[in-house]
Amino acid sequence: MKYIVITLILICTNLFADFRVSHSTWESKSGIVFEYDKEEHFYEGCGIYALSRKKFGPVESLFITAGLNLAWEIKDGFMHCERYGYLGGEGFCIKDFLASFVGSFISFFIEYLFDGKE
User: At 92, phi and psi to the nearest 5?
Assistant: First the structure.
């Protein structure tokens, strides 16, 4: 049994050996479309939520948006921009995920406030 545990530890250690975490600030000016990176993530969350609302309900769209944003940040942790260029990232950044989630949640909240009030 201990050999199985050791093997699993070695596999997980090797799997996450190349995982990188980004320590960007909230004021990071590394945006492509907008000056601030977190502003781009905020609007991206709004946009993905709005697109997913065409097919799914509000709660499902919120979870879909959060899942896609989390998957993108995990991808950024493994795929580094030095090696993969534009498709890569600077690393997993919880602040990027939170900015995207806040954008989708505000879209959800605005829709909730004005739903059915005509």
Answer: -65, 125
